[in-house]
Design brief:
With about 210 residues, the chain is an alpha/beta fold. It contains seven helices and seven strands; from the N terminus they run ααβαββαβαβαββα.
């Protein structure tokens, strides 16, 4: 997941999708692209994935800020805010990574998008219903934000008539962020390990709090 999110950041910063389209059209068009170094990555929800992305982003020279239910310091994160400070993260971010909890449904709407920079990008690898689709399409088409990379959607597969497909500035990924070539083996190994721990009365690994959704 972290690597796919980093790929999304490079897609945005280096305009890679447009460069691939230029090749298909046999078009030589050079660009001066911004650097990720020095840019601000805002992470709404510094859980396990968010913290890992923060570590990699900081290594690239990015300034990382974000929100967390318990706003304790994290490696690579300049400032951790409580969720009540979300508007501040929206306003400061050049790239915004969304959370993945059910209680943040519809968090990216007209109001949230209006707080963002016109040069900012939204990256959604969490849940499709975090975004109000029409509001995001309108913001990108009207250049109120620069664009978005989306890997999750309210309906999957994404319907052919959905405007995400045809809105310049929005990159659609087919929900591949969490896939791994050894996923089944890793999950099976974790299950066996946890079974042994359960039988021995030891704490389990990767425990999910169903009330929190992660």
């Amino acid at each position: 997941m972290s690597e796919h999110i980093l790929a999304g950041l490079f897609l945005c910063a280096k305009d890679l999708a447009a460069i691939v389209l230029d090749q298909a059209a046999v078009r030589w068009r050079r660009r001066v692209n911004p650097t990720l170094a020095g840019a601000t990555l805002g992470i709404l929800g510094l859980g396990a994935i968010g913290a890992e992305v923060a570590r990699w982003a900081a290594a690239l020279g990015m300034r990382v800020i974000g929100t967390k239910r318990q706003p304790t310091a994290l490696p690579g994160v300049e400032q951790v805010y409580a969720p009540a400070e979300t508007a501040r993260v929206l306003a400061e971010s050049d790239y915004l990574l969304l959370p993945s909890t059910a209680e943040t449904r519809g968090i990216i709407d007209k109001g949230a998008l209006a707080r963002m920079k016109p040069t900012a990008f939204v990256l959604n690898f969490g849940r499709g219903d975090l975004v109000v689709d029409a509001d995001l399409v309108g913001a990108v088409r009207e250049r109120r934000i620069a664009g978005a990379v989306l890997d999750v959607f309210r309906t999957e597969p994404l319907p052919a008539e959905h405007p995400f497909w045809t809105t310049p500035g929005i990159v659609v990924l087919p929900h591949v962020g969490g896939l791994h070539p050894r996923r089944d083996a890793i999950v099976a190994g974790l299950w066996v390990d946890n079974l042994e721990r359960f039988l021995a009365g030891r704490p389990l690994l990767q425990v999910v709090d169903r009330s929190r959704g992660y």
